[in-house]
Design a protein that fits this description.
The complex is a heterodimer of chains A (208) and B (317). In chain A, 45% of the residues lie in helices and 17% in strands. In chain A, a hairpin with a 6-residue loop joins β4 and β5. The longest helix of chain A is centred in the first third of the chain and has 21 residues. The N and C termini of chain A lie far apart (70 Å). Chain B is 63% helix and 1% strand. A two-stranded antiparallel sheet of chain B has the order 1-2. The chains are: A alpha+beta (208), B mainly alpha (317). At the A-B interface, α1, α2, α5, β1 and α6 of A face α1, α6, α7, α8 and α10 of B.
């Protein structure tokens, strides 16, 4: 291939790479930029910031439809480089506990209770246990993760009478924790989500 | 004027560079993905992660373009994709039919994500894109490859390496931008608490004790917050001759993420691309130690089974 043709193709793909990954358009939620919100924003910041952000928002309006032209290859190869992970860390301190007949077998913070720790601390499991195991949470995966933990528990403790999965929540740095919800399994293959009433939720677990 | 600029562009993209740092990236990226997936198997998570919910696994959502259920059936589709990813990445790493295996590994690795969203992590999409770009650099697949020619090419065109560096500039800029907008105070203000502190003491995913480290939140961890954003926004330096100095500051970010947050796979994949920022130092070191490296290669060759030798790159040409 002629060097010039190759350079032109490379140039096209580099521009495409810039276009598809430009951070400005990706991180501004365009739905919120109503005329009223724009006016409010303009008053609240200095003129330079206002100029940059509002132009970026305008760019966002035509950027999305144009970007959708490349949805298919990006989705098939799973290569969209949108990086907003950890732009906002969790401001509530959460704890997860597995109890077999009332006895703690696993607890997220610390090293004291280590049952199945390698599995639960693997990042593909740990992040889901943290964020998505609440009923009604995103992706509604609480049932699959609760079943996963319970299945492991029933394998390892087949003679147990009840296995409980308990989630606690508190403010950083997690000194005072309150039970926020609980999944109870009275026998293998059965589980029940138990929403904790506010009066009970206000009670701290006795062994913390 | 435009003709001159275009000629400059042609000269830039077509300039010749040493292919060994890029070959090292091929090996390290593929090895990182390989080890990550083997670890998933070693701790017994393959049947859970790569199986849909109705079949007893954890997968609750399947994205469009996931086609493996039709090919292998819903119970074993994920396991097949996992196995093909592992074998493909191993072949890419050791350099066995590595261009063909890159395509296989990337496609099936993407299918794993499309079928099982829980397996997502940022390093995966970087690994796939980097390996896809290296696909267009034949020399990268001939250097340090077990089925490569005896006399591998000494140079390659620079544009694939430039493209990967550009990709990384956008990755870091995107990460930095998302920390500043729409609310810059989260990462830049000492009065809102430290994001690094909360990330590094998250009880589910990280290892630092929140209570013990709390006194350092608004001083030491706040410095981490600001330093993270500054390093990410200075990523355009990766396209300049100062790239190794920028990378010296950026690499500890990933080492910290690996050690404190246990995101080893993501961090290894990111660091696996760093030879492209330290390329001049690596080439200088390799040239200085050419004799020692030749001796190691000879020893390794003795250990490996004999393979039908291919013609040298000059003979192929």
């Amino acid at each position: 291939m002629s060097e010039k043709i190759e350079a032109a193709i490379v140039g096209f793909f580099m521009l495409l790479l810039c276009f598809l990954n430009v951070p400005v358009a990706d991180h501004l939620e365009k739905d919120q930029w109503t005329p009223e919100f724009r006016a409010q924003f303009k008053e609240s910041v200095d003129p330079i910031t206002s100029f940059i952000v509002l132009n970026a928002v305008d760019f966002n309006y035509w950027y999305d439809p144009a970007q959708q032209l490349f949805d298919f290859p990006m989705a098939v190869l799973q290569i969209p480089q949108t990086w907003r992970i950890y732009n906002h860390a969790s401001h509530s301190y959460r704890m997860f506990e597995v109890r077999v007949d009332g006895e703690v077998k696993y607890r997220t913070p610390g090293n004291e209770y280590r049952w199945q720790r390698t599995k639960f601390r693997h990042f593909r499991i740990a992040y889901q246990l943290n964020d998505f195991t609440r009923p009604g949470a995103r992706q509604n995966s609480w049932a699959s993760y609760s079943r996963f933990v319970l299945e492991l528990a029933w394998q390892d403790f087949p003679d147990a009478e009840e296995i409980d999965l308990i989630w606690y929540e508190g403010e950083y740095p997690g000194v005072q924790m309150f039970e926020s919800y609980r999944v109870i399994s009275p026998r293998r293959g059965a589980m029940e989500y138990l929403p904790v009433p506010p009066t009970i939720a206000a009670r701290a677990p006795e062994d913390l | 004027m435009i003709g001159d600029l275009f000629q400059k562009w042609v000269d830039t993209t077509q300039r010749q560079i040493d292919p060994r740092p890029a070959a090292l990236v091929r090996i390290l990226v593929a090895t990182s993905v390989f080890l990550d997936q083997v670890w998933v198997w070693a701790i017994g998570l393959v049947p859970w992660l790569y199986r849909p919910f109705p079949q007893g696994g954890l997968g609750t959502t399947q994205a469009p373009y996931y086609v493996l259920d039709d090919l292998f059936g819903p119970v074993m589709a994920g396991t097949h994709a996992w196995a093909l990813t592992v074998v493909g990445m191993l072949c890419v790493a050791i350099g066995f039919r590595s261009r063909l295996m890159t395509i296989i590994a990337v496609v099936f690795y993407a299918q794993l994500l499309l079928g099982f969203w829980q397996t997502w992590h940022g390093g995966g999409k970087i690994a796939r894109e980097v390996l896809l770009i290296l696909l267009f650099a034949p020399a990268v697949h001939q250097v340090w490859a077990i089925d490569g020619p005896k006399d591998p090419p000494k140079t390659m065109k620079a544009w694939p390496v430039d493209m990967i560096r550009l990709l990384f500039v956008f990755i870091y800029l995107g990460a930095g931008w998302s920390k500043l907008f729409p609310d810059p105070s989260l990462w830049m203000s000492p009065y809102t608490g430290s994001e690094c502190y909360r990330i590094m003491t998250n009880p589910h995913t990280s290892y630092l004790d929140a209570e013990f480290w709390a006194p350092l939140e608004t001083n030491v961890f706040y410095v981490f917050d600001v330093a993270t954003v500054i390093i990410e926004l200075m990523a355009p330096l990766a396209m300049t001759k100062w790239r190794p100095y920028w990378a010296i500051f950026a690499a500890p970010l990933h080492i910290g993420i690996a050690v404190v947050m246990q995101l080893w796979a993501f961090s290894f994949i990111m660091l696996a691309v760093y030879p492209l920022f330290f390329d001049e130092w690596i080439v200088a070191w390799l040239n200085r130690n050419e004799d020692k490296i030749a001796a190691w290669k000879a020893r390794i060759s003795e250990l490996l089974p004999s393979w039908p030798a291919r013609a040298s790159s000059s003979e192929q040409a």
